[in-house]
Amino acid sequence: MSLDRFLDDIESRPLSLVVINRSAPAQIQTMLEEAFVGQTVTVEERALPEEDDDVVVLVEETDGTVEPLATSPLSALQETILLVNSDLYRTGTRGIEEFELPDVLARLDEVRFSLRGYPESDYEKLLLIVISRYVERHAWEAGRGTLRTSFQRLSRIEDERGTRDVYEKLAAETDVQTHVYGMPDWTPSPEFEVITHGGYTDDFRDSWFVVYTPPADATVEGRHGESHVALLAIETSPREWDAFWTFEPDQVEAIEGYISENL
């Protein structure tokens, strides 16, 4: 058994990101298309005179019926995944309290992605970074519960200032029980209140997960209506990831249970 078994349960869904009445430069449309190239999510563009300009709508088509699932300003995607790079998050330039996840990205849950990191792609891996940051913010806002995060190498917490700032903030400002996982090449100082788990199995070396579960006696509702949230990604080859995220409580608790029992 390994964490990648959870990926096998994810089936493709007929989803499209539709850019309505684009007035932004054509380069923005190209960048959005490139961010989702090769995925089961398609990117389209439509002119609808009765609608607002520069809006992105996530739609699902089932049995000939098209259902809108979420809407976001195109500018929100530009600021989150298109006109930024990963340094924005690694260096802490944008703090956890400032981070907002566009609705259309949040609602891409239960979709399996195959994503590449730099230099193969400038944009694809950013999707995983922004979902990770969202789970961390959700835990920070909840103030209680359990957060389990894998870094492949524990030293990444120390090396990436933005990441370190997030986990120091969680330790200092919340009662979230925070567990971190990875190959044990770094030990936090005693005042850094995280619980470390080190190992060298495939689950430690190849997984990237950020999993939040609320306390059993609390009602937690995030910005997108969720109580539980999990991102799970497996590195299938250097800088290439198979991944999905979910807000389904049973699915999140199954992933959390596997991690707590096996890592």
Total number of distinct structural domains: 1
Question: How much of the residues is beta strand, in percent?
Answer: 25-35%
Number of helices: 9
Helix content: 25-40%
Tell me the radius of gyration: 18 Å
Choose one word for the global shape: globular
Distance between the termini: 12 Å
Tally of extended strands?
Answer: 11
Largest sheet: 7 strands, mixed
| Sheet/helix structural class | alpha/beta
The average pLDDT score comes to 91
- Low-confidence runs (pLDDT<50, min 5 residues)? none
How do the helices and strands follow one another from N- to C-terminus? EHEEEHHHEHEHHEEHEEEH
The largest sheet has its strands arranged as 5-11-10-9-6-7-8
Describe the structure using short key phrases.
alpha/beta; 31% helix; 263 residues; 28% strand
Task: Describe the 3D structure.
The chain is of the alpha/beta class and 263 residues long. The protein has one domain (3-262). The chain is built from nine helices and eleven strands. It has helices at residues 26-35, 74-82, 87-90, 103-106, 126-142, 155-159, 161-173, 202-206, 249-262, and strands at 15-20, 42-46, 55-62, 65-73, 113-116, 146-153, 177-183, 195-198, 207-213, 229-237, 240-246. It has a seven-stranded mixed beta sheet with strand order 5-11-10-9-6-7-8, sandwiched between helices. The chain has a four-stranded mixed beta sheet with strand order 2-1-3-4. Strand 10 and strand 11 form a beta hairpin. It is globular, with a radius of gyration of 18 Å.
